[in-house]
Amino acid sequence: xxxxxxxxxxxxxxxxxxxxxxxxxxxxxxxxxxxxxxxxxxxxxxxxxxxxxxxxxxxxxxxxxxxxxxxxxxxxxxxxxxxxxxxxxxxxxxxxxxxxxxxxxxxxxxxxxxxxxxxxxxxxxxxxxxxxxxxxxxxxxxxxxxxxxxxxxxxxxxxxxxxxxxxxxxxxxxxxxxxxxxxxxxxxxxxxxxxxxxxxxxxxxxxxxxxxxxxxxx
Length: 218
What we know:
It comes from Pseudomonas graminis. This protein has nine helices and no strands. The protein is mainly α. The chain has one domain. Helix 6 packs antiparallel against helix 7. The longest helix is centred in the middle third of the chain and has 21 residues, at about 110-130.
């Protein structure tokens, strides 16, 4: 019961701070694509404005709600203040982002499923870190686009990625690994994202545009 109430409160707080400031402007196609990898997590938290450049940064209230979970995923000590977190990200993120969540694999994990799950969580983490004011935009988007290219290289379509993500999360939580910013991702949710006209994955080409071609796209 307590966990259910906490999830509702967290979702409401994030919805409130993620609302876009008027209008529905989007990032460039490449940047928007990179954020769509996190769609299951953004949906789980009922976030609006996740894909909008007009979205306000987190309020202090929302920062308190998600701070510990984001630091845990990033492998950063919970007693770090914001300046220490910024210094840590600045010094290590570009060299270590690709190993996030993959360093916790078990021998039984299916590798492609683990990769899809990691791609989604990295996209969500970096977007949230940007809204926490932990990252400079240039670094954040560089990692987001590299993560997007990794996903494009590893999977053939949104359906392929979504199916792998579903299995990836299932195997992650089956061994009691924490995903406090996500929720169970069922076949029905995947079908909804892949339904034509849904405004989600089905309406965006998987390989177009490439995130790296051969330099970072805008």
